[in-house]
Amino acid sequence: MNAQFKKGVLEMCVLSLLAKEDRYGYELTETISQTMTVAAGTLYLILKRLKDEGHVRTYLVDSGTGPARKYYQLTEKGIQHEAQLRQQWREFVTQVDELIR
Q1: Is the per-residue pLDDT at 56 higher than 80?
Q2: Buried b / exposed e along 64-89 (16+ C-beta atoms within 10 A)
Q3: How far apart are CA 25 and CA 70, in angstroms?
Q4: I need a surface site. Which of 8, 31, 89, 100 has the fewest CB within 10 A?
Q5: Average of pLDDT values for 26-51?
Q6: Are 29 and 72 contacting, i.e. CB atoms less than 8 angstroms apart?
Q7: Is 16 buried (19+), middle (13-18) or exposed (0-12) by CB count in 10 A?
Q8: How many whole angstroms separate alpha carbon 42 and alpha carbon 86?
């Protein structure tokens, strides 16, 4: 997959997965990696930026087998941002489809 295509949609993919349920970083990486190749470091940079911007918050959960896991949860601002990105994506895909038919 073209790296530039991926770069533009990874944030939306992360937000969409978090809209379904809270997840920890490694779990996000594994889930996304089932569909496309992505470096864990890339996702952690996205998560850090989303947290800095107030779209996600974190909390720790004891893993039972090692260090506590940092879970990511959408904030109200993050829920709205995810919905906006999803709508923009649908419009973009429709426009591109019209051009390449």
Answers
A1: yes
A2: eeeeebebbebeeebeebbeebeeee
A3: 7
A4: 100
A5: 93
A6: no
A7: middle
A8: 20
What pLDDT is stored for residue 1 in this prediction?
Answer: 67
* Cross-sheet strand order for the sheet of 23-24: 23-24, 69-74, 56-61
Distance of CA 5 to the CA centre of its chain: 15
Q: How many separate helices (H) and strands (E) can be counted in the chain?
A: 4, 3
Cα distance between residue 13 and residue 4, in whole Å: 15
User: 14 is written with which tokens?
Assistant: 């992360």
C-alpha span between 73 and 79 (Å, rounded):
10
Predicted TM-score of the model (pTM): 0.89
Tracing tokens 């039972």 back to the chain, one arrives at 64
| Tokens encoding 41 | 């470091």
Angle at 48 between CA 45 and CA 53, to 5 degrees: 125
- How is residue 9 written in tokens? 């949609």
